[in-house]
Design goal:
By secondary structure, the protein is α+β, with helices and mostly antiparallel strands. The protein contains seven helices and ten strands. It is flat, with a radius of gyration of 23 Å.
């Protein structure tokens, strides 16, 4: 073998080792790391947990990552873990309805980050994005990144309000389908109309997310519709500060409609 051929072979082997190093963790290892994180933190046997990969969140994180040619790789793999689901053995299959849910992100080197369902979820989220290297470059990206943060830390991104039509539809569905089952439908309809008229009286012009840029950071306000079975729907305002590097801070969160004993208020 000539010196030139040997040099080319060495380069190829080095490149292959680098690529393999960037993709060191398998799907099975990702799930195992997530299960282990929940099992140890919540003192639940791993055998009682089941997992579901959240590749949509993998993609969300990757879309904000800094991408340097020759060093591009996914920075995290997300797993939803529940305390139940199907438990399958060769002898039988049993199903336990899940009662709790957690979200864990696992880095390429196997480090787990406890997100939704963990008490220090936001700190873990910020540690993850800081280690990955994230860029938030404009107001549109700030809104999208805030939505990603809510999905990872609160599992509430689907509750974000964008227009009154969807708000009305979801609130009415809550009153008619998820309130007291013994209450006549006609009464539920009147309860919903009272709730809706109260909101309409506020004359809110815009309930969609709002972004304000300050120097190299952003402040994003989200209105979230909070739905709990058997309870009246409510609207909560979340204000999140987002740095250009993706770290987030919840500046405030409060119920803005309805408020017991006070004049309801939603930012206009």
């Amino acid at each position: 073998m000539s010196k030139r051929s040997a040099f080319v072979l060495l380069l190829l082997l080095t490149a292959a080792q680098y690529v393999l190093g960037q993709a060191t963790i398998s799907d099975e290892q990702v799930r195992a790391a997530a299960e282990d994180k929940v099992s140890k933190a919540m003192e639940i046997p791993r055998s009682a947990l089941t997992t579901r990969r959240r590749e949509d969140l993998d993609d969300s994180l990757f879309s904000f990552q800094r991408k340097i040619a020759g060093h591009i790789h996914r920075g995290g793999f997300f797993v939803e873990v529940v305390d139940g689901g199907y438990q399958v053995t060769p002898a039988e299959a049993t199903f336990t309805p899940p009662t709790r849910k957690w979200l864990v992100a696992v880095s390429p080197d196997g480090k787990p980050y406890g997100l939704y369902g963990f008490p220090d979820a936001l700190a873990a989220f910020n540690e993850l994005v800081s280690s990955v290297g994230v860029d938030v470059r404009n107001e549109s990206q700030a809104e999208s990144f805030g939505r990603f943060c809510l999905a990872a830390v609160e599992a509430s991104d689907s509750s974000i309000l964008y227009d009154k039509l969807r708000l009305r539809h979801k609130a009415e569905e809550q009153f008619l389908g998820y309130m007291d089952s013994h209450t006549p439908t006609s009464v539920k309809e009147q309860q919903f109309l009272k709730w809706w008229r109260g909101f309409a009286a506020l004359n809110v012009r815009n309930i969609a997310p709002q972004v304000v840029k300050t120097d190299s950071s952003y402040t994003v306000r989200f209105n979230l519709l909070q739905l709990t079975t058997g309870r009246t729907p409510s609207i909560a305002a979340w204000v999140i500060g987002i740095s250009a590097g993706g770290t987030c801070k919840v500046q405030s969160r409060q119920t803005v409609y309805p408020i017991e004993g006070k004049q309801p208020h939603v930012q206009r």
